[in-house]
Amino acid sequence: MSKRLWVGLDVGVHITSVCVLNSAGEAIQEVNLPTSVETIDAFLRPMRRGNIETVAMEAGPSSMYLARGFERLKYTVVVFDCRQMAVYLRIRQNKTDRNDARNIAEVARTGRGTIAEVMVKNVEFQRLRSLLAIRQRMLRLRVGSEALIGAQFHLYGGKLPRSWSAVTLRRNASAEMARIRREQKIDLRSDIEPVLSICENLRAHVEHLDRTFAEMAANIEVCRRFMEIPGVGPLTALSFYSAICNPHRFEKCVDVGPYLGLVPRIRQSGETIARLRISRMGNTMTRAHLTSAAMVLLRSTTKDTALKAWGLEIRERRGGGRAKIAVARKLSIVMLAMWKYGTDWEPFRRAEVQIDHPTGL
């Protein structure tokens, strides 16, 4: 009988459930261990002579740390997309950490290819992704906090004008509080000041991160070339750079569109084929950055390019939403081709040149 083994890990912050399956799908070991590379490796090391094929887990913050550790120890590591894996894990009636670990091991044994796998990024790329995620979360908190201040002013017939900096925000909010205090004899300072201070700090840190990202993008050669494209700024360049990591893992440049969830889903039954909305299977943050860059290219930029003309033509025929997605997908293909082949941005690429040719952008 084959001695090949598959290991499934249901990773928690403190405790990880471990399940080891043999080639017949039988669980030969099921334990709970502290979430530590050293502890889990000490448990698996005696079985490595039994030829551990794969150590599998769901994507997550703790999972990525473990995955990098196991790769350093020469294990074959697979990290599954958590959204798709969640659907598979609902098969069992009772959802427990033990059952999840066993199902993850079973997918690694029989179902690789049915569930998308996540690339394990090195520390440099992971830190960049973390900073981008921090900025995104802080931006949401800032918008929500400023909306809260505006809602308080609305209760008394006031409003908070749009502010482009922390200084302007403070000035506008102070002026509105003074007006309400003067006209209605209501002092809102004790209600507004704490939230206003939070908003100022959030704005200051987001501005600091934006300066940091601008410096980082300027110091990365491929990101500097990305930013030659109208609409593509430091955030989009760094987001795409850190999401892809290695351009050569895509055999064709057009494959990056499905990877980022920018292609429509297809539902086919018999002779009926329906094209649905985009799959949204890729990284949400990078997809949002690309679609924002596409909107800027279509609406705000004054430079004429073949890509803009193509997008405007689609907008005339199919509407703004489809044009935005189409341009975002084309942007991802163009950027991958520039990176993969070391070429520069060409505003008016010859129509007959194919996108996967080294000179075709």
Commentary on this structure:
By secondary structure, the protein is α/β, with parallel strands linked by helices. The protein has three domains: 5-111, ATPase, nucleotide binding domain (Nucleotidyltransferase, domain 5); 123-219; 224-341, no CATH class. Helix content is 55%, strand content 13%. It contains 13 helices and seven strands. It is globular, with a radius of gyration of 25 Å. The N and C termini lie far apart (53 Å). 32% of the residues are buried.
Tell me the number of strands.
7
Domains counted in the coordinates: how many? Answer: 3
What is the first-to-last residue Cα distance?
53 Å
Strand order of the largest sheet: 3-2-1-4-5
The backbone outline, from C-alpha atoms, is: globular
Largest sheet: 5 strands, mixed
